[in-house]
Specification:
Structural class of chain A: alpha/beta
CATH topology of the largest domain in chain A: Rossmann fold
CATH architecture of the largest domain in chain A: 3-Layer(aba) Sandwich
Oligomer: heterodimer
Number of strands of chain A: 10
Number of helices of chain B: 16
Largest interface: A-B, 34 and 24 residues
Strand content of chain B: under 5%
Distance between the termini of chain B: 26 Å
Helix content of chain A: 25-40%
Number of strands of chain B: 4
CATH class of the largest domain in chain A: Alpha Beta
Radius of gyration of chain B: 21 Å
Strand order of the largest sheet of chain A: 6-7-8-3-9-10
Order of helices and strands of chain B: HHHHHHHEEEHHHHEHHHHH
Strand order of the largest sheet of chain B: 1-4
Structural class of chain B: mainly alpha
Strand content of chain A: 15-25%
Number of domains of chain A: 2
Shape of chain B: globular
Chain lengths: 247, 329
């Protein structure tokens, strides 16, 4: 579904992502892990069009997307959340849900902002994350975990095929983590594909069927969770040299 | 009865009727003049608000489009004999076209950089007007024949009345468009851009298109107003019409009334413009009205940082809630 080929990005003299290739299969939950600064978020930003890659290609459903605007990539069917939750803080929760609704053409641009069926869909999704009672509250009034859930639910409004989650469990309490995991799993059953960046290893190992490990902007390993846990290169990247760790 | 008194539509109709009969009931040329200038300030501030209020891009350079509209209308009147009351609506489309192009360039910048770019825009327009004397008559400015219709010049007693009604028409149109935008997907997108532009782009809003379009639409009304203004005064010159202070005034009015709200800029204009005229009348044409404006703005910023209208509606809402709570208890 998503194919990243030999992609690179440098900031100043530092190669944040360095000739990285990876694939995300349709219907999978793929994990993307690696130590801090290994290039995970940079890769995310290239897939979603926020950065132009210096070299390499990104194909989504066999069409190149690396030259498109973020909004165009969104319209192709890729949705994302941000590492630090981003909402339209002074807009209501409902409005936050409505903004991502996909629409094209001049006539719809000037049509009613919040339509009945959009509102109904938004309420369904808010119900899914258990936040219907906050529909008319401004987004900044919600707790951190609730904000994450709203961001997540809002992405579903544009009905993406591939959803990129950047640290969905970061700073969230254990109960909420369970809830998010359950949601991802349910949506995956319904056919959504996920690419997840996460530091919470329990979440990654339980949720993902396939894991890709980055270090210094390069892919150092990929495979099933059990294989990754015992991969010497991965252990070295996370814990330092295996010789020292073993000693 | 009570329900009618509290409905917005009722008050809108009342205000519209007052504005419709005003020039017929009020024969003082001075008050007629102040009313026209007040409505013009409301038009400028409201259309500035489409970009500056909804999308959050503070342009201090909208005077460029006001002036351009003025020049185009004056030139078309002098060279081709097109009546400004008609030509201004069409010539403003040219203004809009130029604004779309300039917006496409300038809206790559954000925050203070954008403010500076828009100020530069005004000076560029002024320089062009000063340095094309064959067309614009340079620093001497352009004069138009005295206003009239079909070869008949309007008498001094009558002259303000047509201007009153065309400005009222323009004001209604501006508010209508601003309202329609606020209610639409487009307006929702603009507000999303104000809140978090990167996020808006990520959820599928073509932010550049939205911003440029907002820029163009707001410039259109600037252009129309500029055209009417140039005919009203029958004289324009580059120093006066391409003035950053014109841009600053409409921004201050919008901030005072409530930036980003539909009625805030209108309210701001109906406070500031008559007040400014009264002060000038009372204390003479000194700079004292600027000092007083500054003081008022400071007070509003300190005590009602969102502007007058949002603060007032907050107070009313809270009172309403408190009353409802009492009723329930």
């Amino acid at each position: 579904m998503l194919a990243v080929n030999q992609i690179s990005k440098a900031f100043g003299g530092i190669n944040a992502v360095d000739g990285c290739s990876m694939r995300v299969e349709r219907g999978s939950i793929t994990g993307l892990i690696g130590p801090n600064g290994s290039g995970k978020t940079t890769l995310f930003n290239m897939i979603t069009g926020f950065y132009q890659p210096d070299g390499g290609t990104i194909l989504f459903n066999d069409r190149a997307i690396h030259n498109l605007l973020p909004s165009q990539i969104c319209h192709r069917g890729i949705g994302r959340t941000f590492q630090i939750t981003r909402l339209f803080w002074k807009m209501t929760v409902l409005e936050n849900m409505i903004v991502p609704v996909r629409h094209t053409g001049w006539r719809t641009l000037f049509s009613q902002g919040v339509k009945k069926h959009e509102e109904e869909r938004a309420m369904e999704l808010l119900d899914l994350v258990g936040l219907t009672q906050f529909r008319d509250d401004e987004a900044h009034k919600l707790s951190f975990g609730q904000q994450k859930l709203v961001e997540f639910a809002a992405i579903l409004m544009s009905d993406p095929d591939l959803i990129l989650l950047d640290e969905p469990a970061g700073g969230v309490n254990p109960v909420m983590i369970e809830k998010i995991m359950q949601l991802v799993d349910d949506l995956n059953q319904q056919g959504k594909t996920f690419l997840v960046v996460e530091h919470n290893m329990r979440l990654v190992m339980e949720l993902c069927q396939h894991i890709i490990v980055l270090d210094h902007g390069q892919k150092i390993a990929e495979g099933e969770p059990s294989a990754i846990q015992n991969d010497p290169l991965v252990l070295e990247a996370y814990l330092g040299s295996t010789e020292h760790a073993g000693a | 009865m009570k329900r009618i008194l509290f409905s917005n539509r009722f008050w809108l109709v009342i205000i519209l009727i007052i504005l419709l009969v005003f020039p017929l009931a009020q024969h003082s040329q001075y008050y007629q003049h102040v009313m026209i200038m007040t409505m013009m300030a409301a038009v400028l501030s409201s259309s500035w608000n489409i970009l500056g209020g909804y999308a959050g891009y503070t342009s201090l350079g909208h005077a460029a489009f006001f002036g351009l509209g003025g020049y185009l209308v004056a030139l078309a009147h002098n060279y081709f004999g097109w009546h400004p009351f008609i030509s201004t609506w069409f010539l403003a489309i040219i203004v809009m076209g130029i604004a779309l192009l300039l917006g496409w360039i300038s809206l790559r910048t954000h925050g203070s950089a954008f403010v500076v770019v828009t100020i530069a825009m005004v000076y560029i327009f002024r320089l062009v007007a000063l340095n094309l004397p064959e067309i614009t008559n340079g620093a001497r400015g352009l004069t138009q024949p005295r206003p009239g219709w079909g070869g008949v010049q309007w008498s001094p007693e009558f002259i303000k009345i047509p201007f009153h009604y065309i400005m009222l028409l323009l004001l209604c149109l501006t508010i209508l468009v601003s309202w329609r935008i606020r209610q639409s997907k487009f307006g929702l997108g603009l507000i999303a851009i104000r809140e978090d532009e990167g996020k808006a782009e990520a959820v599928g809003i073509n932010t550049m298109l939205y911003k440029v379009l907002a820029f163009g639409i707001s410039a259109y009304f600037m252009g129309v107003a500029g055209g009417i203004y140039s005919y009203f005064f029958t004289y324009i010159d580059p120093q006066f019409i391409f003035d950053v202070f014109t841009g600053v005034t409409m921004v201050l009015i919008a901030i005072l009334g409530g930036r980003g709200t539909l009625w805030g800029p209108v309210l701001g204009a109906f406070i500031m413009e008559p007040l400014g005229n009264w002060i000038i009348g009372e204390f003479g044409g000194t700079q004292i009205h600027l000092t007083i404006f500054g003081g008022i703005l400071l007070m509003v910023m300190l005590f009602m940082p969102q502007g007058i209208l949002p603060t007032l509606s907050n107070v009313i809402n809270q009172r309403h809630k408190a009353r409802m709570a009492k009723v329930v208890a």
